[in-house]
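Quick board copy: two proteins, each given as sequence then tokens.
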Amino acid sequence: MKSERLKIRFEVDRPGLSISSIILEDLKVGDSSSSFEEYEKETFEEIRSQMTLEDAKDDPIFRSYRDLYWTFGMDPTKLRVSSEAVTRRILKGLNLWRISDVVDIVNLASAYHKIPISLIDASKLKGDLVVRTAFNGELFQRIGNKLIMCRGREIVVADDQKIVCFGFATHDSKRTMITKDSSTVYVLLYGAEIITRAVMDNALRITLDMIDQWVDCRVSEPVMFFSDT
């Protein structure tokens, strides 16, 4: 499947949801550089100076994703949206994981602007994407190999074969995860109802600035998809 043909449709009836998609092509996945690690430390300090764990409970952006999850019967205190999960880890004084340059950058960007991001290896995707409700008994294998059996009510993102992202977004799929051999990657930023176009544009800018500085790739123009169009 050619990367430029990616399409995303919504089959859930929640208004105000959006996904911004960018494509990284000719990607050369490597390890994070020492200069990025220094920048990451500075960013950790900035995040910790602006928010506490107590503040995170009432943050309006995080709250919007929690509210969304509750409407799908998902407990957001147990299944946190990925941006809140990485932010809370930083606020606890912990470091983020060392996976690869592109994954490390996306984790940091997501914590900084609070918008959840998922990564998909385009070569492993089967067809286009749909935001839908999981099927009862549907199995999802997350990165790390843990299997999740869906109850038939959770919000998920899937291709023509299987779920590629559990939640909006909590866990990425092992099947479409980024490896050292990934050369074309979709970067998806997920917007809840409270996320305005201006907020999403700012999150995209921050993410792209980090990618431009530390990742060897070509970057496409962003494309946005909306639940109510």
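And the next:
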Amino acid sequence: MKRWYSRFVKLIFIVTRPLSALVLHNSRRVRTIVTAENSVLLVRSSFGHQLWSFPGGGIEKNEEPVHAAARELKEEADLQLEEKQLKYSGEARIPSGKKYPMINMVFYTAPLPKIEQIQVTRPLEILEVKWFKLNELPSERSKSVDIGLQMLQNHSL
């Protein structure tokens, strides 16, 4: 059932790609890099490219990016963090697809002392949520993962 649903949503994404590209172009979105015990939290969304990515999403009108990051963590992985636990890491302009649309991504980091229990709370939106060792990341990951990890590394120096 999950595989069928994944393929169905991917087909819808391909068909509506021109419209979604117009909506997403120059949008501002958030991603949160949650780390614990040399691992990082990744989600695989049913929408879009279905690659592993950091939890995150759109910033609602009049919403602060840090609030959006905390909200998306709760919605996607059932991980409740306070905004003060999220540290601003930077922003990047990332192409979604080959070059278009361009998305303005705001990154936050949340280092945790231990791996927290997580679960999919929105099964229609999120296919999987999982902790990965930093040296065992999936090859099927979005560009934003590599960009975010580079930011994380630069902040650690």
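Board note added afterward: The chain is about 30% helix and 30% strand.
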